[in-house]
Write a structure and sequence with these properties.
567 residues, alpha+beta, Jelly Rolls, 3 domains, twelve-stranded mixed sheet, eight-stranded antiparallel sheet, 7 helices, transmembrane helix, Ferrdict_sens_TM
Amino acid sequence: MTQPDPDIREQILELADAQCAGIITEDELAALEGLLTAHPEYRREYLNYVFVHIGLAGTAQARVLQDPEAELPLSVKPATDNTSEPIERGYLVMLIPIVCSAICLGAVGIFLLMGDFQGLWEPEMVLQQRSKYYFDDSASPPEEIASVNQVARARWELLGNSPAVTDRFQPGTVKVTSGEVEFAFSGGADINVVSPSLFGFERKDQGTLFSGSVSTQRSDRKALFRLETPSIELIDQGTEYEVSVNEAAETFVHVLDGQLAVKPRGRLPRFYWNFDEAPQTALSDMLNQSPVQAGKNALRVQGLIGPGAIQFNNRPDASLRLGNGGGQEVGTGDYAVSTGITIEALVVSDWKAAESPQTRAPFDYDEIFRKEDGSYRILLSFQNDDKAGITQIPQVGDGPCLSFGLYLSGLGYSELDMPLDGKEGRPTLAEMRDGQPHHIVATYNGWTGEKAIYIDGIMRMSHRFPVGTMIISGGAAPAVIGNLISAQSATLVGREPFNGVIDEVAFYDYALNAGTIATHFSLFKAGKDYFDGQFLDILRQEKQEDYLLIHKGQKMKFSAETGKPVL
């Protein structure tokens, strides 16, 4: 937000004071109009100033409004008693309505001339600054999915590098620190957020309660609305209910009217490729049977686990194109995630990178997984360049690294670059390309803000972002294993091919915890897949699990670990 210029502000308020007192000259009035034209950021404050003077016209003086960056909402001090003589007071009382009307008409007239009448009567604390500061100029931002409906003396701000008060929201997280705010989702739901709360806007029909309390009123809307908490997913169609999440991440639900469907959040990956199909059978995802298009230099070989894996030979058409999951715009498709992500794979790397960083393009990147939606990309790759510091969080030195890149709301795109230097528990470059399979896992957990990279069951590097910071992802570009292919390319040819073998790739829409990752590595070392051979049974059970219906008047508590009701 642009910081006010105290000199210009003071000039405007001095001229406004003269206008309110009825002593402004024609030249001064022209100067006032010129300043307001050149500095529109002061127009609302000018008008508020005039109306406060109108409200205090019977007092000795009016209080000058606070700076718009200061505490909201505006509080006006009571005026002091006027000690004028009775006869003077009588004339003043007669003149007040006339003077006030003239000032009001003059002030509104200036705004009409400037074309700034729209939104004039909106609550002062709802500033018309949109939340598009999230997004890069080079990328198309997601559509607005919610707006402020009602305010009860509330204070809130968006999470990110440039916190702001706003009344319209793209995907992101808002922190309500006082009062209550009702947000109207474009999908039809009205969600009332009570302070103190941390609430995320995911999609037009989906929100996230990280902490605090929300409620909704009964309505006749047809669209479903999904509310996510740390352990459960709630679905309603106009139900009236209250939900809260405590410090232990337990969820409390109270249905006031109608009924609400509740289900534990899924624990299986969204996609899983084990490459174990028979040679004559096309490759596909194990969960959805989504087809995989293989470039001619992506060859089937003996599996690191099971009968099959894929070998890549560093050629442009060494690729597995997975499709975009139905995505068209940012935030859409099955690869669009918000509160968390895990990318997991078994890898034998023959990366040919030099020990020293490359100093000019083209750089030798070996992609494990990449979905190239511009700034909203998801990537997990070996990299070796001297320009990575532009997007690194945290900053590390140049040289070979394993990079995990995401776009985080309010913060932009950044990469967790783990140097392959053998320091602080990290593996060396030689260890990563020793010809042996390694279990590589990259996670981001919006509930904790932790972004991390695990190698062989152990966390090797991590960084903490603010709790509640969400991922923005998805779009038209294809997801790819072993290469980079953009949305503009319809071929299987990419420009950042992998060199080596990849097997057992899983894509989750949540962050695996450290214990689960360690278990997966132990299973791999025992010659088993991540699910101990029980994947299809677990999938069948999860698909058969029905939503629990909570009816009017019922209250329930749900476990943070399992999402099951706690009796």
